């Protein structure tokens, strides 16, 4: 019975890892749509968001079924609870990629981004996708060191986000208020996407160690 239960826990982890791959692809495509003013790619991201929502529902149903099947304790219980929280974070990452794609569609055929900030968003997109893919690896390996390393990449994202904000707040910004608003919102989407990826990794640390990073009772 226990062997069958642990097999189901493994399947649940596979579902979460699959969601990581889905949201990585969504943000990669959304960034391409944003930078290249590609309406077809934006539409693909928008239409594909329902699959991410369905994947979250499937993960949660599986997790709740495991809770009902056998009252888990210790690591097993942490695994199920972490999966529920991680699935929520991953769905939100999909939603943030969706917001990026919708911004690209809304302004089409005009570009959303002024040329001077293209480089920022290309790099933010790269970091975001890399974080999602690293989260997938962390889920599959339960590597605590790799999970904690995601914080460094998130710091890079935060630095870019702060620098981007300073660019649009410069009194010499020549692209108008509407453009500044677009850039501000888009930068926030990428920053929050990265935060959720780190949150997923922290759930893995919780599963393995029994402590949530940042809770005050653990050296990070």
From TrEMBL:
InterPro entries referenced in this protein's UniProt entry, alphabetically: PhoU (IPR028366), PhoU-like_sf (IPR038078), PhoU_dom (IPR026022)
Gene Ontology CC: one annotated term: cytoplasm
GO BP annotations listed: intracellular phosphate ion homeostasis; negative regulation of phosphate metabolic process; phosphate ion transport
Every PhoU domain range: 18-103, 122-204
UniProt keyword terms in alphabetical order: Cytoplasm, Phosphate transport, Transport
Keyword Transport: yes
Compartments where found: Cytoplasm
Any Pfam family hit: PhoU
Principal localisation: cytoplasm
Function: Plays a role in the regulation of phosphate uptake.
Similarity remark: Belongs to the PhoU family.
Assembly and interaction partners: Homodimer.
Full protein name: Phosphate-specific transport system accessory protein PhoU
Species the sequence originates in: Actinokineospora spheciospongiae
């Amino acid at each position: 019975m226990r062997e069958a239960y642990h097999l189901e826990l493994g399947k649940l982890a596979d579902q979460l890892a699959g969601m990581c791959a889905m949201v990585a692809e969504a943000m990669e495509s959304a960034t391409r749509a944003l930078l290249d003013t590609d309406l077809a790619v934006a539409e693909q991201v928008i239409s594909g968001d329902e699959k991410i929502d369905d994947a979250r529902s499937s993960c949660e149903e599986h997790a709740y079924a495991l809770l009902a099947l056998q009252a888990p304790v210790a690591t097993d219980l942490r695994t199920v609870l972490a999966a529920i929280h991680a699935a929520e974070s991953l769905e939100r990452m999909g939603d943030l990629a969706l917001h990026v794609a919708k911004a690209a569609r809304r302004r089409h055929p005009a570009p959303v981004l002024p040329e001077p900030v293209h480089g920022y968003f290309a790099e933010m997109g790269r970091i975001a996708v890399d974080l999602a893919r690293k989260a997938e690896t962390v889920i599959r390996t339960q590597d605590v060191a790799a999970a904690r390393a995601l914080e460094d990449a998130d710091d890079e994202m935060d630095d870019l986000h702060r620098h981007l904000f300073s660019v649009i707040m410069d009194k010499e910004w020549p692209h108008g208020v509407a453009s500044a608003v677009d850039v501000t919102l888009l930068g926030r989407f990428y920053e929050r996407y990265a935060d959720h990826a780190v949150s997923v990794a922290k759930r893995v640390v919780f599963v393995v160690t029994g402590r949530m990073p940042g809770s005050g009772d653990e050296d990070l």
